[in-house]
């Protein structure tokens, strides 16, 4: 596969999109030790200091209609969660739609970006950011409460290249399962790894906030939340806090 390794980039997602637009093949990986303007979901910044984290992006060229692209969010979350569990032995879980948590704190975020025409996907970039070897003091004050590294969680440092290999292998595996067995097989894995279902959650979606119990996800990957009045609402885009 094509592999690009950098000491410093603005954002591996931006670079991966550029490579993809120039024709980079399915499976291309862009990884950097440091990102100067790492990006998170919903326009947020993603702190990406050097020497400690795993910041990388994977180019996929799936044979799918564009409306199915969000399903790849679940494919990647399952793969990353499995790989971290196998590699570290830590009982990390998935928070809908695709954060990876250790005891309620975020160790990993995933940012998926799509380039498509009416009926075909040009490429999808899966951007994965993992807090691997940071000490608690390395996190900016506003993240101290919400974030944690694998090293703090496991009380040991981890090899970033070894973890990257484990994730790429798992991503290939889950992607293959998705293409051959379909989305239900992926959802089955996702359900077994999540800490969101059955929980009381506060949902912040694009234009409103409400609370309820996260009951399930549907075949499209929407979170189904039962509110106090007994209605079930489906959430496509948004954030949940537990
Ligand atoms: C989130 O939780 O909001 C998603 C965070 C995604 C961060 C990764 S780090 C590698 C890739 N490059 C970026 O600029 N963002 C993603």
Automatic annotation (TrEMBL):
Repressor among keywords: yes
Keywords: ATP-binding, Biotin, DNA-binding, Ligase, Nucleotide-binding, Repressor, Transcription, Transcription regulation
Residues that coordinate or bind biotin: 11-13, 35, 39-41, 106
Catalytic reactions of this protein: biotin + L-lysyl-[protein] + ATP = N(6)-biotinyl-L-lysyl-[protein] + AMP + diphosphate + H(+)
GO MF annotation terms: ATP binding; biotin--[biotin carboxyl-carrier protein] ligase activity; DNA binding; transferase activity
GO biological process: protein lipoylation; regulation of DNA-templated transcription
Keyword Nucleotide-binding in annotation: yes
Superkingdom per UniProt: Bacteria
Ranges for domain BPL/LPL catalytic: 1-179
GO terms under cellular component: cytoplasm
Function, as annotated: Acts both as a biotin--[acetyl-CoA-carboxylase] ligase and a repressor.
UniProt-recorded name of the protein: Bifunctional ligase/repressor BirA
Organism: Thermanaerosceptrum fracticalcis
Gene coding for it: birA
